[in-house]
From TrEMBL:
ARM repeats lie at residues 3-31, 130-161. Keywords: Protein transport, Transport. The keyword Zinc-finger does not apply. PROSITE patterns: ARM_REPEAT (PS50176). Gene3D superfamilies: Leucine-rich Repeat Variant. This is Karyopherin alpha 1. Pfam families: Arm (PF00514). InterPro entries: ARM-like, ARM-type_fold, Armadillo. One of its GO terms (biological process) is protein transport. Belongs to the importin alpha family.
Length: 198
């Protein structure tokens, strides 16, 4: 309510030290965060353009906070998901699923997972970015939380239309899900079961 976003976004238009950029994107991420009550989307959505180019900054902290902000903005009804898609971030989010730091992978995966909770057309945008190969790779992650989140994401894709389910089958993901059912922790197995039964 104090109209903090415009001056904060203004910081990104200047050449700043990395620490200033890190602090600004961290603040931006926190402004987008929260469920009870969630921030008013119309007030935080202007940051989508800035977030779209922050995804190309090489600094891990900046990337992680930009991805977290996008995950918060995409957590909700389809109109919010569509605004995130319209910002043109999907391809880069999918690319970041293969980042070498889990600090980036985790929020990128959450954002991708939130987007595929949308309608079939919104889910297809993520599929068109070749997400399934990255998700298949994440199913063998040594980090259990990444495996669980990848299963959850796939379960939302398999809740889609027949063509989308066939795409998951063709990507050879079901053998990996079956393996998870036999070996993973309970919460991860539960998500894998949803992905298979959808």
């Amino acid at each position: 309510d104090c109209n903090i976003l415009p001056p904060l976004l203004q910081l990104f238009s200047k050449q700043n030290r990395l620490t200033m950029t890190r602090n600004a994107v961290w603040a931006l991420s926190n402004l987008c965060r929260g469920k009870s009550p969630p921030p008013e989307f119309a007030k935080v959505s202007p940051c989508l353009n800035v977030l779209s180019w922050l995804l190309f900054v090489s600094d891990t902290d900046v990337l992680a906070d930009a991805c977290w902000a996008l995950s918060y903005l995409s957590d909700g009804p389809n109109d919010k998901i569509q605004a995130v898609i319209d910002a043109g971030v999907c391809r880069r989010l999918v690319e970041l699923l293969m980042h070498n730091d889990y600090k980036v992978v985790s929020p990128a995966l959450r954002a991708v997972g939130n987007i595929v909770t949308g309608d079939d057309i919104q889910t297809q945008v993520i599929l068109n970015c070749s997400a399934l190969q990255s998700l298949l790779h994440l199913l063998s992650s040594p980090k259990e939380s990444i495996k669980k989140e990848a299963c959850w994401t796939i379960s939302n894709i398999t809740a889609g239309n027949r063509a989308q389910i066939q795409t998951v089958i063709d990507a050879n993901i079901f053998p990996a899900l079956i393996s998870i059912l036999q070996t993973a922790e309970f919460r991860t197995r539960k998500e894998a079961a949803w992905a298979i039964t959808n």
